[in-house]
């Protein structure tokens, strides 16, 4: 049955929410900040309303003590949430992106009662593009009991599987405001060195997946001399440079040739302008983009992801410091699994060799007690630090450990060697 697509004020739109309900937010630059601000203003009447969300680019206003009536369930933790988590107002969801598309729909464990979407204005046929954030939001919105849209002229009209029709939206508010920006991160000498090492093992014609942060930025910067690359899953400002310089052509893909399959975009107006009505960008649900089966169909798929620690067996955590959850699973496991089944594919895990301003090694004998294993040892093909590249695929325990020892910081190699020889 068609929905009403009723134009409302912010206050009236949020008045449709009830205490105790679950409300899904688009992540990153797609967050509808005006609607979120109104939820915070009405927090006192929305006792135990749970916001569901991932990466947030602000200061988590709903987690402040003055909005203690609200709860937050997230698949991407942040240290900024520590206080709210201690107060019992935050719960971490250990879900990878591909599984989110199954758990955030009716019948799923975290099915929302309402989905907020952030859209470009409707076209002549009544279709609204979800712009920069499609991955988990679109499939959830298509099946949610209540859909409220923030319609924003500043949102780029992205193409592909990115649209809701006005008949699929219950209520909407018109708000002209800049999108939450994700400025390019500062890249230092260590990240530059890692980026160069990673780029050296990426073949021409590869389909490349990177995440967010200084290391992925350095990798993209280092790929400027490659040819016929494709990008998958995420676009940032540095992606635009690679397209403009002719590095990214998407010409070698076996399907959707000439187009990038993207679930999320995080950047600044430079990226948003690039995205608008761009036929080279095919927005898709994470049910497609993060499906290891989709990834496996892409020859030379190279998954490039960050890590917090890697142990001498090749186990990777990208989300926790011991038992302390500081990030999320994200799409890392989806992509390293798919890369293993891609013809000529590879999973690259990249990290600085030390942490805490050089006080500790991030290549460790064993992951810290309580640490979550984001990528298991049998899926890590390459581990890269500023000291070089460790090739792990096919090696035995000793060979893997020796390769990892060689890319550890020289100050810690003696200690790691002693552990290795005594085990």
Characterization of the model:
With 423 residues, the protein is of the alpha/beta class. It folds into 2 domains: 6-174, Glutaconate Coenzyme A-transferase, CATH 3.40.1080.10; 189-422, Glutaconate Coenzyme A-transferase, CATH 3.40.1080.20. The protein is built from 14 helices and 26 strands. The protein has helices at residues 10-14, 33-41, 82-86, 97-103, 137-141, 189-200, 214-222, 237-244, 269-275, 286-289, 292-296, 332-341, 397-407, 410-422, and strands at residues 6-7, 22-24, 50-53, 71-74, 90-92, 114-119, 127-129, 146-151, 159-160, 163-165, 171-174, 207-210, 230-235, 260-265, 281-283, 301-306, 309-311, 316-317, 320-321, 324-325, 346-350, 354-355, 360-361, 363-364, 382-385, 388-391. The strands form 6 sheets. The protein has a 9-stranded mixed beta sheet. Strand 13, helix 8 and strand 14 form a beta-alpha-beta unit. The longest helix is centred in the last third of the chain and has 13 residues, at 410-422. It is globular, with a radius of gyration of 22 Å. The mean pLDDT is 96.
């Amino acid at each position: 049955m068609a929905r009403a697509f009723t134009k409302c004020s912010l206050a009236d739109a949020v008045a449709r929410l009830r205490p105790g309900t679950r409300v899904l937010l688009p992540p990153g630059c797609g967050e509808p900040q005006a609607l979120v601000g109104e939820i915070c203003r009405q927090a006192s009447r929305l006792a135990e309303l749970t916001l569901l969300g991932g990466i947030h680019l602000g200061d988590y206003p709903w987690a402040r003590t003055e909005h203690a009536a609200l709860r937050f369930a997230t698949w991407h933790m942040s240290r900024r949430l520590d206080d709210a988590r201690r107060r019992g107002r935050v719960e971490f969801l250990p879900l990878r992106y591909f599984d989110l598309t199954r758990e955030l729909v009716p019948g799923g464990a975290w099915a929302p009662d309402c989905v907020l979407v952030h859209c470009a204005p409707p076209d002549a046929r009544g279709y609204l593009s979800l712009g920069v954030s499609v991955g988990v939001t679109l499939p959830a919105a298509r099946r949610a009991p209540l859909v409220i849209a923030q319609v924003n002229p500043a949102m780029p009209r992205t193409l592909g599987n990115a649209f809701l029709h006005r008949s699929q939206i219950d209520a909407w508010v018109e708000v002209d405001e800049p999108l939450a920006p994700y400025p390019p991160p500062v890249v230092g000498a260590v990240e530059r060195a890692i980026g160069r090492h990673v780029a050296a093992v990426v073949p021409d014609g590869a389909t490349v997946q990177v995440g967010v942060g200084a290391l992925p930025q350095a990798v993209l910067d280092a790929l400027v001399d490659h040819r016929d690359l494709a990008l998958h899953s995420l676009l940032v400002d540095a992606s635009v440079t690679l397209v403009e310089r002719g590095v990214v052509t998407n010409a070698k893909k076996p399907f959707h040739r000439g187009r990038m399959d993207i679930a999320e975009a995080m950047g600044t107006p430079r990226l948003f302008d690039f995205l608008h009505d761009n036929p080279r960008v095919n927005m898709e649900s994470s049910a497609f983009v993060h499906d290891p089966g989709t990834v496996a169909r892409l020859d030379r798929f190279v998954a490039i992801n960050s890590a917090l620690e890697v142990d001498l067996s090749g186990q990777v955590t990208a989300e926790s410091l011991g038992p302390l959850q500081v990030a999320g699973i994200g799409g890392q496991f989806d992509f390293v699994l798919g890369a293993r089944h891609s013809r000529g594919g590879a999973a690259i895990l990249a990290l600085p060799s030390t942490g805490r301003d050089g006080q500790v090694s991030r290549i460790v004998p064993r992951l810290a007690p309580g640490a979550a294993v984001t990528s298991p040892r049998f899926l890590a093909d390459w581990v890269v630090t500023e000291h070089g590249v460790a090739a792990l695929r096919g090696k035995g325990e000793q060979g893997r450990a020796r390769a990892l020892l060689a890319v550890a910081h020289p100050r810690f190699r003696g200690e790691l060697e002693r552990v290795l020889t005594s085990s």
